Automatic annotation (TrEMBL), chains A, B:
Transmembrane segments: none annotated. It comes from the Bacteria. One of its GO terms (biological process) is proteolysis. Keywords: Carboxypeptidase, Hydrolase, Protease, Serine protease. The active site is at 136 (charge relay system), 178 (charge relay system), 205 (charge relay system). It is an enzyme of class 3 (hydrolase). Exopeptidase that catalyzes the hydrolytic cleavage of multi-L-arginyl-poly-L-aspartic acid (cyanophycin; a water-insoluble reserve polymer) into aspartate-arginine dipeptides. The lineage of its organism: Bacteria, Pseudomonadati, Pseudomonadota, Alphaproteobacteria, Rhodobacterales. This is Cyanophycinase. Coiled coil: none annotated. CDD domains: GAT1_cyanophycinase. PANTHER family: CYANOPHYCINASE.
């Protein structure tokens, strides 16, 4: 479940967690940018509505893609693990240049798609250049270490975040979504404090982190992207704390980035808009 | 945090989760086999007692290694994240042919070592051939997806297992330890049900899963190794279940293996002792 290997002479596709807030996202530059990356009017867009239980979830995004000039749009009817082995569905998935996963429940994505041929197709596709976006639950699912369940609040507490394996397109970041709106700094810090190797990305609604093939993030949308860098944590009381009790953490670094700002996951450096 | 890449012409070292039960392990063939793999009398054994808060934890294992004829034994004094950047400690770690991590609390290992130079050394070492064993907490820590916290019982329940990123020597398995002794089938099934891509390994006390460079497991010791194969799960109610409620799972495959039996993680096939 680590990222699939990128074939020689190819570039990994962009990985695009979006913070949710569907109404706002529909008219924002986020989906437009996704379509441009995926080939503009020639894009072959695939929508995976599995996280949601609303029949309309995929159609709403398809309508936006249509408005943006895309004609080749498929909403995949993936409800069960057997669907993930259906040759017709896999063919459409293999042909995509861009993928969008709707919001809903990230455990529905992981339990339905995890370990199936559809997961392999998505992982291999991204490794050879297919761009994969997800909003809300879809955003959480792109990660190797996915926040599956959690509680609100600013202070990290032991057990506040439950992790599960996600799709595993990247293991460099742990994503949390509806970030400012649902007060999730505590649970993102908790998730990182278990093992401070990854970088935390808290994505506000109508905001997206476009993670490039070079692992540099570009921010799009109207909200903020909160970067939580635990690499310089000197002390953490996580191991010696009871369930539900606050966790002491010394040395967490935080950045709040807005549209146009960038963050390099390799060097852990942030760049305000317009800087080199 | 996916496994480090094995350099050309080299073989990954063995990964050896042990199920705990220190008193029994001391006189069992498990540590003997670890020493043989690591070079016998020429082995350079390193002990990491970080998971434990008992001062004697490392010394007891060192005594066993000594009895087995090893003269080059280092107990590394890793208590803080700063220790994981100490050049003297890193030098000893880089020189090891075999590593043993004691039991205690796996979150102490993850919070102290995760993301540090010591973690990089262990991961790169294993990739180029260093054998890494861990008992109890040390066994949990070898995985990419580590069971950090959990409850006892046979029925899987949502939230029964909390995962955290581990050392990440392998992402093919999720290990649980003291398996039969602490009634942990439920929590291992829960951990796998979040995303059924990995294979579950429940390791009884005084029992070890020797995971070879070819990802074939050999069982050693007096207890059982429970293999939980979720790859054929057709249905799971995990995504639609409330916290603490039982999870319905259809299609889990189980194997109970004993000393001498083998399991191939690539083909998901089990081989009784003596078979080809």
């Amino acid at each position: 479940m680590s990222p699939a290997q990128t074939p020689k002479n190819l570039q990994r596709g962009w990985i695009i967690p979006i913070g949710g807030g569907d109404r706002k996202v529909r008219s924002s530059p986020i989906l437009q940018r996704l379509v441009e990356l995926s080939g503009g009017a020639d894009a072959r867009m695939v929508i995976i509505p599995t996280a949601s239980q609303l029949e309309t979830a995929g159609q709403r995004t398809a309508d936006v893609f249509k408005e943006l000039g895309v004609t080749n749009i498929e909403i995949l009817d993936i409800e069960t693990r057997a669907d993930c082995e259906n040759p017709e569905i896999l063919e459409k998935l293999d042909a995509a240049t861009g993928v969008f996963m709707t919001g809903g429940n990230q455990l529905r994505l992981a339990t339905t798609i995890g370990g199936t041929s559809a997961a392999k197709s998505l992982r291999a596709g991204n490794a050879r250049g297919v761009h994969i976006a997800g909003t809300s639950a879809g955003a959480a699912f792109v990660c190797e270490h996915m926040i599956a369940i959690g509680k609100s609040g600013g202070t990290p507490k032991r057990g506040m975040a439950s992790l599960a394996p996600g799709l595993g397109l990247t293991n460099r970041v742990i994503v949390d979504q509806h970030f400012r709106e649902r007060d999730r700094l505590g649970r993102l810090m908790t998730a990182l404090a278990y093992n401070p190797f990854a970088t935390g990305i808290g994505v506000d609604e109508d905001t997206a982190a476009f993670i490039g093939p070079d692992d540099v993030i570009e921010v799009f949308g109207s909200g903020g992207l909160t970067i939580v860098d635990p690499s310089e944590i000197e002390f953490s009381s996580m191991a010696d704390t009871n369930m539900g009790a606050p966790v002491g953490l010394i040395g967490v670094k935080l950045h709040i980035l807005l549209a146009g700002d960038r963050y390099d996951l390799n060097t852990r450096k942030a760049f305000p808009i317009g800087s080199e």
